[in-house]
Specification:
The chain has about 230 residues and is an alpha/beta fold. The protein contains 8 helices and 8 strands, in the order ββααβαβαβααβαβαβ. The chain has an 8-stranded mixed sheet. Helix 4 runs parallel beside helix 6. The longest helix is centred in the middle third of the chain and has 13 residues. The radius of gyration is 17 Å and the shape is globular. The structure holds iron/sulfur cluster. Iron/sulfur cluster binds next to loops.
Length: about 230
Protein backbone atom coordinates (compact mmCIF):
# COMPACT_ATOMS: atom_id res chain seq x y z
CA UNK A 1 0.00 0.00 0.00
CA UNK A 2 1.34 3.39 -0.96
CA UNK A 3 0.00 5.30 2.02
CA UNK A 4 1.17 8.88 1.80
CA UNK A 5 -0.42 10.33 4.87
CA UNK A 6 -2.70 9.56 7.78
CA UNK A 7 -4.85 10.99 10.51
CA UNK A 8 -4.42 8.79 13.53
CA UNK A 9 -7.83 9.45 15.03
CA UNK A 10 -10.84 11.15 13.52
CA UNK A 11 -14.52 11.46 14.30
CA UNK A 12 -15.29 12.81 10.84
CA UNK A 13 -14.14 10.17 8.37
CA UNK A 14 -16.27 7.15 9.35
CA UNK A 15 -19.87 8.00 10.31
CA UNK A 16 -20.51 7.24 13.96
CA UNK A 17 -17.06 5.73 14.51
CA UNK A 18 -13.63 6.75 15.72
CA UNK A 19 -11.27 5.87 12.91
CA UNK A 20 -7.74 6.24 11.66
CA UNK A 21 -7.67 7.56 8.10
CA UNK A 22 -5.10 6.48 5.56
CA UNK A 23 -4.54 8.42 2.35
CA UNK A 24 -3.26 6.40 -0.60
CA UNK A 25 -1.41 8.03 -3.49
CA UNK A 26 -2.63 8.13 -7.08
CA UNK A 27 -6.01 8.38 -8.75
CA UNK A 28 -7.61 7.39 -12.05
CA UNK A 29 -9.63 10.63 -12.13
CA UNK A 30 -8.49 14.23 -12.42
CA UNK A 31 -11.38 16.11 -10.89
CA UNK A 32 -10.61 19.81 -11.34
CA UNK A 33 -12.01 20.55 -7.87
CA UNK A 34 -10.00 17.82 -6.11
CA UNK A 35 -8.27 19.27 -3.07
CA UNK A 36 -5.71 16.47 -2.82
CA UNK A 37 -3.81 17.65 -5.90
CA UNK A 38 -0.37 16.52 -4.72
CA UNK A 39 -1.64 13.09 -3.75
CA UNK A 40 -3.23 12.63 -7.17
CA UNK A 41 -0.66 14.24 -9.47
CA UNK A 42 2.65 13.58 -7.73
CA UNK A 43 2.27 10.56 -5.46
CA UNK A 44 5.86 9.48 -6.12
CA UNK A 45 7.18 12.74 -4.73
CA UNK A 46 5.88 11.85 -1.29
CA UNK A 47 7.42 8.98 0.70
CA UNK A 48 5.29 6.00 1.64
CA UNK A 49 4.38 5.65 5.28
CA UNK A 50 6.27 2.50 6.39
CA UNK A 51 3.74 -0.31 6.76
CA UNK A 52 5.39 -1.43 10.02
CA UNK A 53 4.52 1.94 11.46
CA UNK A 54 0.85 1.48 10.54
CA UNK A 55 0.64 -2.05 11.96
CA UNK A 56 2.50 -1.09 15.12
CA UNK A 57 0.20 1.87 15.64
CA UNK A 58 -2.96 -0.18 15.10
CA UNK A 59 -1.76 -2.94 17.42
CA UNK A 60 -1.72 -0.35 20.21
CA UNK A 61 -5.15 1.11 19.43
CA UNK A 62 -7.50 -1.68 20.45
CA UNK A 63 -10.35 -0.16 22.42
CA UNK A 64 -9.41 3.34 21.24
CA UNK A 65 -10.29 3.09 17.55
CA UNK A 66 -13.33 1.47 15.95
CA UNK A 67 -11.99 1.28 12.46
CA UNK A 68 -9.74 2.36 9.64
CA UNK A 69 -10.89 4.54 6.76
CA UNK A 70 -8.93 3.78 3.59
CA UNK A 71 -9.02 6.86 1.42
CA UNK A 72 -7.05 8.57 -1.28
CA UNK A 73 -6.45 9.39 -3.97
CA UNK A 74 -8.24 6.27 -5.12
CA UNK A 75 -7.52 3.25 -2.89
CA UNK A 76 -8.86 0.65 -5.34
CA UNK A 77 -5.75 1.28 -7.45
CA UNK A 78 -3.58 -0.23 -4.71
CA UNK A 79 -2.64 -3.75 -5.75
CA UNK A 80 -2.56 -5.06 -2.18
CA UNK A 81 -5.76 -3.40 -0.98
CA UNK A 82 -7.51 -6.69 -0.27
CA UNK A 83 -4.79 -8.31 1.87
CA UNK A 84 -4.32 -4.99 3.63
CA UNK A 85 -8.02 -4.73 4.47
CA UNK A 86 -8.05 -8.38 5.54
CA UNK A 87 -5.26 -7.77 8.01
CA UNK A 88 -6.99 -4.68 9.41
CA UNK A 89 -10.17 -6.69 9.96
CA UNK A 90 -8.26 -9.60 11.47
CA UNK A 91 -6.88 -7.11 14.00
CA UNK A 92 -10.47 -6.45 15.01
CA UNK A 93 -11.08 -3.12 13.30
CA UNK A 94 -13.84 -2.10 10.94
CA UNK A 95 -12.85 -1.08 7.41
CA UNK A 96 -14.32 1.87 5.57
CA UNK A 97 -13.50 2.42 1.89
CA UNK A 98 -13.68 5.79 0.15
CA UNK A 99 -13.91 5.34 -3.61
CA UNK A 100 -14.82 7.07 -6.83
CA UNK A 101 -16.44 3.83 -7.96
CA UNK A 102 -14.38 3.45 -11.12
CA UNK A 103 -13.00 0.00 -10.24
CA UNK A 104 -16.19 -2.03 -9.73
CA UNK A 105 -14.14 -5.23 -10.05
CA UNK A 106 -12.12 -4.33 -6.96
CA UNK A 107 -15.18 -3.12 -5.09
CA UNK A 108 -16.98 -6.36 -5.86
CA UNK A 109 -14.01 -8.42 -4.72
CA UNK A 110 -13.91 -6.54 -1.43
CA UNK A 111 -17.64 -6.92 -0.90
CA UNK A 112 -17.67 -10.60 -1.81
CA UNK A 113 -14.74 -11.35 0.48
CA UNK A 114 -16.39 -9.52 3.36
CA UNK A 115 -13.44 -7.15 3.72
CA UNK A 116 -15.30 -3.88 4.01
CA UNK A 117 -17.88 -2.63 6.51
CA UNK A 118 -18.79 0.73 5.03
CA UNK A 119 -18.32 2.27 1.59
CA UNK A 120 -18.51 5.97 0.73
CA UNK A 121 -18.78 6.40 -3.03
CA UNK A 122 -18.66 9.68 -4.93
CA UNK A 123 -21.45 10.46 -7.32
CA UNK A 124 -19.75 13.36 -8.97
CA UNK A 125 -22.36 14.64 -11.36
CA UNK A 126 -25.27 13.61 -13.56
CA UNK A 127 -23.95 10.92 -15.89
CA UNK A 128 -23.94 13.27 -18.84
CA UNK A 129 -21.53 15.58 -17.01
CA UNK A 130 -19.26 12.91 -15.60
CA UNK A 131 -16.32 13.56 -17.96
CA UNK A 132 -16.33 17.20 -16.96
CA UNK A 133 -16.57 16.44 -13.25
CA UNK A 134 -13.88 13.75 -13.29
CA UNK A 135 -11.52 15.54 -15.67
CA UNK A 136 -11.08 12.40 -17.81
CA UNK A 137 -13.20 10.44 -20.29
CA UNK A 138 -15.40 8.27 -18.09
CA UNK A 139 -17.17 5.04 -18.97
CA UNK A 140 -20.23 5.73 -16.84
CA UNK A 141 -21.26 2.07 -16.96
CA UNK A 142 -18.48 1.43 -14.47
CA UNK A 143 -19.94 4.03 -12.13
CA UNK A 144 -23.39 2.52 -12.52
CA UNK A 145 -21.97 -0.95 -11.89
CA UNK A 146 -20.43 0.16 -8.59
CA UNK A 147 -23.67 1.84 -7.56
CA UNK A 148 -25.56 -1.36 -8.30
CA UNK A 149 -23.08 -3.42 -6.28
CA UNK A 150 -23.63 -1.23 -3.25
CA UNK A 151 -27.39 -1.21 -3.63
CA UNK A 152 -27.29 -5.00 -3.69
CA UNK A 153 -26.14 -4.98 -0.06
CA UNK A 154 -25.63 -6.01 2.61
CA UNK A 155 -22.74 -3.63 3.36
CA UNK A 156 -23.64 -0.21 4.72
CA UNK A 157 -22.84 2.63 2.32
CA UNK A 158 -23.38 6.21 1.31
CA UNK A 159 -23.31 8.12 -1.95
CA UNK A 160 -21.93 11.62 -1.77
CA UNK A 161 -21.71 14.64 -4.03
CA UNK A 162 -19.49 17.69 -3.71
CA UNK A 163 -21.43 20.74 -4.73
CA UNK A 164 -18.93 22.33 -7.10
CA UNK A 165 -19.98 25.83 -8.17
CA UNK A 166 -19.94 26.25 -11.93
CA UNK A 167 -20.29 22.49 -12.41
CA UNK A 168 -23.41 21.60 -10.45
CA UNK A 169 -26.51 23.75 -10.14
CA UNK A 170 -29.96 22.93 -8.84
CA UNK A 171 -31.07 21.05 -11.97
CA UNK A 172 -27.99 18.82 -11.68
CA UNK A 173 -28.68 18.10 -8.03
CA UNK A 174 -32.21 17.08 -9.03
CA UNK A 175 -30.77 14.76 -11.67
CA UNK A 176 -28.35 13.28 -9.13
CA UNK A 177 -31.33 12.75 -6.82
CA UNK A 178 -32.92 10.58 -9.50
CA UNK A 179 -29.62 8.76 -10.00
CA UNK A 180 -29.23 7.86 -6.32
CA UNK A 181 -32.93 7.21 -5.86
CA UNK A 182 -33.73 4.81 -3.04
CA UNK A 183 -30.38 4.93 -1.23
CA UNK A 184 -30.58 5.02 2.54
CA UNK A 185 -28.07 7.83 3.00
CA UNK A 186 -26.84 10.62 0.78
CA UNK A 187 -24.37 13.40 1.61
CA UNK A 188 -24.07 16.81 0.00
CA UNK A 189 -20.57 18.14 0.58
CA UNK A 190 -19.39 21.71 0.47
CA UNK A 191 -16.70 22.55 -2.09
CA UNK A 192 -13.32 23.50 -0.55
CA UNK A 193 -11.32 25.92 -2.76
CA UNK A 194 -7.92 24.87 -1.44
CA UNK A 195 -4.96 23.14 -3.15
CA UNK A 196 -7.21 22.22 -6.06
CA UNK A 197 -6.04 20.07 -8.93
CA UNK A 198 -6.99 22.82 -11.36
CA UNK A 199 -5.45 25.93 -9.76
CA UNK A 200 -8.18 28.10 -11.27
CA UNK A 201 -10.68 26.38 -8.98
CA UNK A 202 -9.13 28.00 -5.91
CA UNK A 203 -10.75 31.27 -6.91
CA UNK A 204 -14.17 29.68 -7.25
CA UNK A 205 -16.43 30.76 -4.41
CA UNK A 206 -18.38 27.97 -2.67
CA UNK A 207 -22.14 28.26 -2.73
CA UNK A 208 -23.63 30.03 0.25
CA UNK A 209 -24.68 27.62 3.00
CA UNK A 210 -28.35 28.51 2.55
CA UNK A 211 -28.16 27.55 -1.14
CA UNK A 212 -26.60 24.19 -0.30
CA UNK A 213 -29.21 23.63 2.42
CA UNK A 214 -31.94 24.35 -0.11
CA UNK A 215 -30.45 21.65 -2.36
CA UNK A 216 -31.17 19.15 0.40
CA UNK A 217 -34.87 19.66 -0.27
CA UNK A 218 -34.35 18.80 -3.93
CA UNK A 219 -32.75 15.44 -3.14
CA UNK A 220 -34.79 14.55 -0.07
CA UNK A 221 -37.77 13.01 -1.93
CA UNK A 222 -35.45 10.49 -3.61
CA UNK A 223 -33.43 9.13 -0.69
CA UNK A 224 -33.83 7.90 2.86
CA UNK A 225 -31.81 10.64 4.45
CA UNK A 226 -29.74 13.61 3.24
CA UNK A 227 -26.89 14.95 5.34
CA UNK A 228 -24.56 17.91 4.84
CA UNK A 229 -20.80 17.98 5.19
CA UNK A 230 -18.75 21.11 5.54
CA UNK A 231 -21.74 23.45 5.56
S1 LIG B 1 -11.60 14.13 -6.00
FE1 LIG B 1 -11.31 13.10 -7.99
S2 LIG B 1 -9.13 13.33 -8.51
FE2 LIG B 1 -9.38 13.76 -6.30
S3 LIG B 1 -9.01 11.82 -5.28
FE3 LIG B 1 -11.22 11.97 -5.58
S4 LIG B 1 -11.62 10.97 -7.55
FE4 LIG B 1 -9.41 11.37 -7.44
Amino acid sequence: MHVKGWVKSSLLDYPGKIAASLFCGGCNFRCPHCHNADLVLHPDQQPDLPSDQIWDFLSRRHGLLDGVAISGGEPTLQTDLLPFARRVREMGFLVKLDTNGYRPDVLEAMLDAGLVDYVAMDVKAPLIKYDQAAGVAVDVKRIQHSMALLRRGPVDYEFRTTVVPGLLAEEDILEIGRLVSGVPRFYLQQFVPHNTLNPEMTSRVPYLPERVRAMVDLVAPWVGEVRLRGV
